[in-house]
Amino acid sequence: MTITGCEGQEAAKIMYIVQAALSGVVSIVAIILLYWRICYKHQTMFDFRAGFIRPKPIESMGLFGVLFNLLRMVQSIIYVADVLPNPIFRSFMFEVPWQFGFCALACYLFGTAHTLSDTSATIYTVWVRSPVIIDTICVLVIALPFITNTICSLLAGMYAEQGDIASAKAYTSAIYYLWSFYTAFLGLLIVFAGIRLIRLLYYHLEMQTDLRVNGAKIKTGVLKVKIVVLVGAACLWLYSIVAAMYAAFRDPITKNMPMVVLICILWMYMGALTTLMIEFAIILNPQMAKALVNLSFGSYTSDTQTDPLESVTLSQNEDMFTSFELASTSKAHGTEWNKAQYESESSKLEKDRIQYNTVTRKQHHCFMHHAERSVDITESQTSSIFNDSTTSAIQLTNSTQ
User: pTM here?
Assistant: First the structure.
């Protein structure tokens, strides 16, 4: 559990210095994001309403991610400075950070499950079915690595201090096998949950097409979930492969310096780089997502770039305008063709108009005569109805006061 006196001491020292710096930077970014979400967006890390501690996906992942990277930074400083040489303490410090990193991704998984189940009864039925089962699995996935791996790491350090190298190696191999199983299992859960979550978000987006909803935010949310799921699962599965290989072939690997360097690079930097990618996903907004699409598929100027929906609308408007032009042109040609016929019919229409006006004047005179008589009758009836209605309204108002 030391780099002092090793064959690649100087190279290892440089690698640990880089790890300490990288872990410190991502920890500062994570602390800023956590402060922003809690203080300005008024989010909480845990939910206590159901009588059981349930993690919030982003906030709890941020908390344990900060602890993971800070502890990794402290461990690197201890190795570079070569202080606190006790084997039990160093074995413990090597093991504990990974448990917090594992816990961060587990909290994101189960926090997402509970958050979705609280949003809709349909999602609750499809996603969770039984919150007790989810809570039980959550506790087991988070607690088991702390229990089993911590015990193995303490025993490995204790036997190493006593000089029992065989027992120390056995418990060290057990740690790697356990981590291989835990990380592979959690990676499968994250992929399974991520696929279902993405389907639900796409379904939600399709159901909101007729409403005034900002679809760009939902699409950005889908992109964020994809980044977290892909990066988290890839990190976990890569750790699982490396841990299983190191547990099974530890002696041949330690004798092969290029292989040792490769495994050390993966083991030391993958956690911090995964944290950095997840931080990028949290910061991502619709404008940044659009810029990424432009970088991926080629940038376009503002004059030539058009939204697909806008293109359809413009195409429909162009078709309507073209039809209008054709109809107008057709009418213009028809008017010129029938001009002579129109002039011949105009005289007939004028004669009919004069005859119609003569008949209308006679009918109008008779109608006005009868209308004058009807007005007198209507006025008397209207006055009676109005008086009756006014009386009824006054009585109703008085009765309701």
Answer: 0.69
